[in-house]
């Protein structure tokens, strides 16, 4: 699933210029008409660079350096910040852009990638994961694509939750509702759920239904072609979203900002429906 076209140094200009494919994660207005871009690349990891004049309507960068665009960049190394000198869109993900829900899901993935990927540490599989996930959102896939993305991201960055044995004592989990504790690192058996550490507040568990446990295991164990067959009725979909959000918030030690907007949209759409 990883695309192999990645970074290659522009010939003839030594190390001054580099060419890389990238997905724009975010942009901040800076200076008079510039944008400070954060983007993820397959072979150079997460980088930042200035796109000079990109907020001017006639800039040749307009449309190419927007968040969630898959782009080919030519970047000049600068003393402090690198500078984008050319940008060419490879995939604009038009369908994501045309829906508020799809846009907010895409931005959520971009925010997680920004939060989990350390600066300058390359992981081509992470790049492939983000690119493939945006492709799925672009074709209208929703909850399962997001849950699979979260689990795969946690796996690739070393935070895979334990779902096969109790994360606290290591005992096999009975096939019944159990506990889930980000502090412990995953599922908790019924014994540990009622243990002294829990009572003392050291492990803050939530309840995980048997269906949620089975669904998360299924998503974790299968590639996406298989995983996408999972059907999530609404209460279960919300439970999985809540469990993974609880876990991710613990790993990042903060809330993920874009989840507030996802929640807001759901409330608004719920009222409209
Ligand atoms: Zn246990």
Question: What would you say this structure looks like, in words?
Answer:
Helix 2 (100-116) runs antiparallel to helix 3, helix 3 (124-138) packs antiparallel against helix 4 (143-156) and helix 4 packs parallel to helix 9. The protein is an alpha+beta fold and 273 residues long. It has 2 domains: 1-141, OB fold (Dihydrolipoamide Acetyltransferase, E2P) (Beta Barrel), CATH 2.40.50; 157-273, no CATH class. The chain contains 10 helices and 9 strands. Strand 2 and strand 3 (34-41) form a beta hairpin. The strands form 2 sheets. Strands 2-3-4-6-5 form a 5-stranded mixed beta barrel. Strands 8-7-9 form a 3-stranded antiparallel sheet. The structure holds zinc ion. Zinc ion binds at residues 166, 168-169, 171, 188-189, 191-192. The site of zinc ion has 8 residues, from helix 5.
């Amino acid at each position: 699933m990883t695309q192999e076209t990645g970074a290659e140094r522009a010939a003839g200009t030594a190390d001054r210029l580099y060419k890389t494919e990238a997905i724009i994660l975010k942009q901040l207005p800076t200076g008079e008409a510039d944008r400070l871009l954060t983007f993820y690349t397959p072979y150079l990891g997460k980088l930042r660079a200035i796109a000079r004049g990109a907020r001017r309507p006639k800039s040749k960068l307009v449309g190419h350096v927007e968040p969630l665009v898959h782009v080919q960049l030519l970047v000049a190394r600068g003393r402090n910040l690198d500078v984008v000198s050319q940008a060419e869109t490879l995939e604009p993900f038009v369908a994501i852009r045309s829906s508020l829900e799809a846009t907010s899901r895409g931005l959520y993935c971009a925010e997680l990638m920004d939060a989990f990927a350390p600066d300058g540490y390359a992981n081509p599989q992470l790049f492939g994961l983000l690119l493939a996930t945006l492709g799925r959102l672009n074709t209208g896939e929703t909850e399962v694509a997001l849950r699979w993305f979260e689990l795969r991201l946690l796996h690739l960055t070393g935070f895979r939750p334990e779902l096969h044995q109790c994360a606290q004592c290591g005992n096999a989990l009975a096939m019944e509702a159990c506990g889930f504790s980000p502090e412990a690192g995953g599922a908790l058996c019924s014994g540990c759920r009622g243990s002294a550490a829990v009572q003392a507040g050291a492990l803050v568990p939530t309840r995980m239904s048997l269906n949620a446990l089975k669904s998360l295991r299924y998503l974790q164990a299968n590639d996406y072609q298989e995983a996408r067959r999972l059907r999530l009725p609404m209460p279960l979909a919300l439970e999985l979203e809540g469990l993974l959000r609880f876990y991710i918030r613990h790993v990042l030690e903060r809330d993920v900002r874009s989840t507030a907007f996802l929640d807001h949209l759901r409330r608004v759409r719920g009222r409209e429906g």
